[in-house]
């Protein structure tokens, strides 16, 4: 490996990039770069044409990207798809690095009887954005369940609140769409594959990022502010703008020295794919706040449902270890029975005993309450679909650093009780794309911190408020201390009787103030 | 709902009430008499005053108990039963204690110091039978009504296990013990107001010996409502006392005899 002098202005050192045509990377043809240290547009001086020199420049050119997205989750893929779908930014050279193999996602052919246990609630605002960037057309909509009714109640006092999109008159009557994460990822990959923009997004899956460093500083080209990624395959990528969409333990965030603050909830989120006794076609999302944590049942197509039960780590492990019948009985009990009954049933291990005891207590409940005050019975849990993950709240100090931006879970993590985590990420992507479009139109360097701070300024307060509210709700409802129970019951019943407050809450939760 | 007009009134009353629609509240269990808060207060006041002056009226004491049974406290007691496996079984099987279900004469044949024998001997000594307990009428929740009924029927077992006699002093001491153990309001009312009827010496005995015993043991003992008496009739009394955490109080009849003999 050695130095190649092209002409008086350029000297580079390139460890093994793939060759590509230089013409694919012309940063200055439509707008001028504001940084004097950016690589000049070579090929304009006549003295240049030596084969050895041009192949060397080909090598560096192919490692230089306008945007490198680390993380092929939903936020990262949405960002790549959005940038490529927008006419202002579609010419940018984008690479996406993902540690897991994406081939199985790309070739996903869904089985109508099996639903993944990683499911998200997509707000109408997020769905609209996905539609706008052309992703929603690739989603398997027969596996998406729109719901328009949400019933939330207090497990200790029984106070209820009912959000009904139909009667409260929100725009299209849908509160949110329950979609499998796999469904969205597949749609995003399909969209990326179908985009005909030139250059296409370079997707490097099954590739981990071994190291992130600052770029090299050469005689004439100062890439020291450009982050360079060393991949597990040995290749290198240098980015004008590095996007961290790599989840809670983001290496990009660590490289940028951005601190992430928050705390761990002493709770695990237990997810499962369930089957209901019969399909009541009511499209209701149910959530009950137990002192150990909220349990939520989200409707899925064909009489199936998705469970998200935030509970203590001990209970989560116990629930995962139970037989399918006992587990379903406990889920039913968690929605119907008093806390004393649920605590008793959770401490039992014999399946027959649990079932008999549950039937006895359930027989005392009024028949007409089924499907109205609590969901229809759960009868089956999909094999292998019970899984749990620790819950935490994190918010990082800033979303941007010079030539770095964070989106999605890398920037913030929240409790799943409000179903907002993924939607906040989508909002981040929308905002960042708008900022980048503006930058491109004004001829700015997209990696410039001044440019990126507009994104942080727009998203930070919105995310902070949502994170704060969700966290306070979690703290308020994870106790059975009688004075607090009394206060929250009164508060909930007041809100329940005020339609205008409920409309406001529904509008906020639907994300309509974001877009 | 169809209006329910009482039809057993005389024709002229029915004529006067021609346009009157009366919706009787629906009972929640057989024997239930639904009452509103004012009716309950009236019942409580009336039965409380009368039973103060005539404590032999067991039915009035029962009414006082039901009228003052705050739903919060009865539900708390019921939840304590639900939390315990035996208590849960009692609520499910709903056993009732009557002279026919227990066979008192058989119990007298049981070995010395068993619960059954002690109970039967106590019944004989005091001259009472388990059938004298009135059914619950004024408690609105069906399960709480059973809890109250069960408490009432087990009251004699509490006498037997503590050895307190049926005289007024013994009853008051036992009421205080039950208040500390179950938190039923009527037991507290009885334990606090009833001593006003007593002679000073009796009050002194209560204050120095029996109330401290009752509060200490009632609060620290396991809930007696969770004991399935019918199943443990052949067990040793002292062992049960140790399990539950109850000490036997001084013999009240003995103390009274001693005092009388000294006079």
Portion in strands of chain B? under 5%
Strand segment tally of chain B: 0
Global structural class of chain A: alpha+beta
Order of helices and strands of chain B: HHHHHHHHHHHHHH
- The shape of chain A is elongated
Can you tell me the number of structural domains of chain B?
Answer: 1
> Percent range for helical residues of chain A?
25-40%
Largest sheet of chain A: 9 strands, mixed
Uncertain regions of chain A: pLDDT < 50 for 5+ in a row?
A: 1-56
What is the general shape of chain B?
globular
Using only C-alpha atoms, the radius of gyration of chain A works out to 26 Å
In round numbers, the mean pLDDT of chain A is: 86
Oligomer: heterodimer
Structural class of chain B: mainly alpha
Strand content of chain A: 15-25%
Protein name (chain B): 4-hydroxy-3-methoxy-5-polyprenylbenzoate decarboxylase
Subcellular location (chain B): Mitochondrion inner membrane
GO molecular function, one term (chain B): zinc ion binding
GO cellular component, one term (chain B): extrinsic component of mitochondrial inner membrane
Overall description:
The complex is a heterodimer of chains A (515) and B (263). With 515 residues, chain A is α+β, with helices and mostly antiparallel strands. Chain A has helices at residues 51-63, 74-85, 103-106, 124-132, 165-168, 181-194, 251-255, 313-321, 324-336, 339-347, 351-363, 421-442, 449-477, 482-497, 499-509; strands spanning 4-5, 11-12, 64-70, 94-97, 119-122, 145-147, 149-154, 160-164, 176-180, 202-204, 209-214, 227-231, 236-244, 260-276, 284-290, 293-300, 304-311, 378-381, 387-396, 400-401, 404-406, 412-413. In chain A, strands 7, 8, 14, 15, 16, 17, 18, 19 and 22 form a 9-stranded mixed β-sheet that branches. In chain A, helix 2 runs parallel beside helix 6 (181-194), helix 2 runs parallel beside helix 12 (421-442) and helix 12 packs antiparallel against helix 13 (449-477). Chain B is mainly α. Chain B has one domain (27-262). In chain B, helix 2 (37-53) packs antiparallel against helix 3 (58-67). The model of chain B has no long low-confidence stretch (mean pLDDT 85). The interface between A and B is small, with 8 and 6 residues. Chain A: This is Ubiquinone biosynthesis monooxygenase COQ6, mitochondrial. Chain A: It is a peripheral membrane protein. Chain A: Keywords: FAD, Flavoprotein, Membrane, Mitochondrion, Mitochondrion inner membrane, Monooxygenase, Oxidoreductase, Ubiquinone biosynthesis.
């Amino acid at each position: 490996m050695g130095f190649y002098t092209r002409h008086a202005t350029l000297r580079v050192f390139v460890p093994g990039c793939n060759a590509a045509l230089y013409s694919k990377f012309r940063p200055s043809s439509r707008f001028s770069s504001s940084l004097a240290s950016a690589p000049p547009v070579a090929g304009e001086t006549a003295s240049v044409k030596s084969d050895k020199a041009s192949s060397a420049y080909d090598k560096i050119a192919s490692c230089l990207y306008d945007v490198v997205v680390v993380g092929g989750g939903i936020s990262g893929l949405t960002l790549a798809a959005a940038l490529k779908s927008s006419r202002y930014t579609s010419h940018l050279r984008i690479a996406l690095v993902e540690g897991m193999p994406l081939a199985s996602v790309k070739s996903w052919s869904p089985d109508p009887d099996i639903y993944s246990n990683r499911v998200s609630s997509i707000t109408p605002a997020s769905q609209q954005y996905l539609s706008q960037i052309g992703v929603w057309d690739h989603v398997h909509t027969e596996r998406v369940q729109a719901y328009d009714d949400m019933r939330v109640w207090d497990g200790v006092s029984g106070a209820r609140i009912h959000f009904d999109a139909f009667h409260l008159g929100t725009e299209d009557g849908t509160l949110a769409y329950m979609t499998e994460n796999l469904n969205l990822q597949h749609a995003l990959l399909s969209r990326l594959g179908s985009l005909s923009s030139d250059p296409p997004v370079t997707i490097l899956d099954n590739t981990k990022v071994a190291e992130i460093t600052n770029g090299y500083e050469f005689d004439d080209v100062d890439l020291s502010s450009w982050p360079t990624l060393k991949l597990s395959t040995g290749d290198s990528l240098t980015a004008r703008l590095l996007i961290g969409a790599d989840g809670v333990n983001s290496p990009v965030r660590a490289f940028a020295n951005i601190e992430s603050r928050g705390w761990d909830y002493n709770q695990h989120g237990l997810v499962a794919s369930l089957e209901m006794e019969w399909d009541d076609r009511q499209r209701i999302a149910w959530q009950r706040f137990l002192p150990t944590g909220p349990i939520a049942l989200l409707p899925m197509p064909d009489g199936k449902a998705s469970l998200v039960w935030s509970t203590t780590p001990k209970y989560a492990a116990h629930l995962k270890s139970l037989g399918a019948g006992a587990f379903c009985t406990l889920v039913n009990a968690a929605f119907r029975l008093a806390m004393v009954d649920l605590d008793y049933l959770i401490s039992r291990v014999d399946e027959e005993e649990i079932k008999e005891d549950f039937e006895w207590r359930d027989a005392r409940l009024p028949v007409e309450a089924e499907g109205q005050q609590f969901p229809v019975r759960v009868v089956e849990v999909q094999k292998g679909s019970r899984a749990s993950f620790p819950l935490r709240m994190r918010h990082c100090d800033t979303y941007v650093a010079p030539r770095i931006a964070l989106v999605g879970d890398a920037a913030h993590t929240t409790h799943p009780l409000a179903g907002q985590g993924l939607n906040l990420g989508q909002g981040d992507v929308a905002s960042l794309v708008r900022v980048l479009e503006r930058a491109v139109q004004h001829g700015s360097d997209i990696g410039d911190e001044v440019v990126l701070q507009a994104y942080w300024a727009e998203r930070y307060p919105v995310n902070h408020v949502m994170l704060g509210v969700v966290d306070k709700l979690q703290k308020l409802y994870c106790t059975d201390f009688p004075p607090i129970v009394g206060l929250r019951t009164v508060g909930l019943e007041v809100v329940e009787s005020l339609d205008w407050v409920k409309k406001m809450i529904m509008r906020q939760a639907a994300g309509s103030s974001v877009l | 709902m169809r209006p329910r007009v009482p039809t057993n009134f005389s024709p002229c009353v029915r004529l006067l009430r021609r346009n009157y629609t009366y919706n009787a509240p629906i009972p929640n269990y057989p024997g239930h008499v639904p009452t509103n808060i004012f009716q309950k207060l009236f019942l409580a006041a009336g039965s409380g005053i009368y039973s103060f002056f005539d404590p032999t009226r067991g039915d009035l004491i029962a009414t006082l108990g039901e009228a003052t049974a705050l739903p919060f406290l009865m539900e708390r007691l019921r939840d304590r039963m639900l939390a315990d496996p035996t208590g849960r079984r009692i609520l499910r099987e709903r056993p009732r204690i009557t002279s026919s279900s227990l066979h008192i004469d058989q119990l007298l044949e049981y070995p010395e110091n068993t619960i059954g024998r002690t109970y039967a001997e106590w019944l004989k000594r005091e001259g009472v039978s388990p059938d004298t307990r009135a059914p619950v009428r004024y408690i609105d929740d069906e399960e709480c009504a059973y809890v109250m009924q069960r408490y009432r029927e087990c009251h004699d077992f509490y006498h037997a296990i503590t050895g307190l006699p049926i005289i007024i002093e013994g009853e008051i001491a036992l009421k205080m013990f039950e208040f500390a153990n179950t938190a039923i309001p009527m037991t507290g009312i009885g334990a606090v107001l009833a001593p006003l009827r007593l002679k000073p010496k009796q009050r002194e005995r209560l204050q120095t010996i029996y109330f401290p015993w009752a509060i200490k043991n009632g609060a620290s003992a396991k809930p007696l409502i969770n004991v399935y008496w019918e199943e443990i009739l052949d067990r040793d009394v002292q062992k049960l006392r140790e399990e539950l955490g109850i000490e036997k109080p001084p013999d009240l009849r003995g103390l009274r005899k001693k005092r009388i003999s000294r006079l």
